Amino acid sequence: MTRAKRPRPPEPDYPVYVGSFGDDHRYRLVWLRGVGWEPLSEEEFEPRIRQLFPDIDLDDPEQVHWADRPQEWPAWHPGAA
Which residues contact 36 (CB under 8 A, 6 or more apart)? Predict the structure, then answer.
């Protein structure tokens, strides 16, 4: 059986696009222009963004777009996945 190739979805228009909120892990998938999608935790988010885009305004929705629940991260407790 051969699988048909699905067309690649268009890249977001923003330098940073934070994907949908999920409550089964501590990460959100984040689109980084020039890199692609990366799972980032709340603690990893700003340092990674600043590494790639040092002058970005994290509060500007034209630069950092949140799919939903802006600035929120799934609850996570040490020992959880």
Answer: none
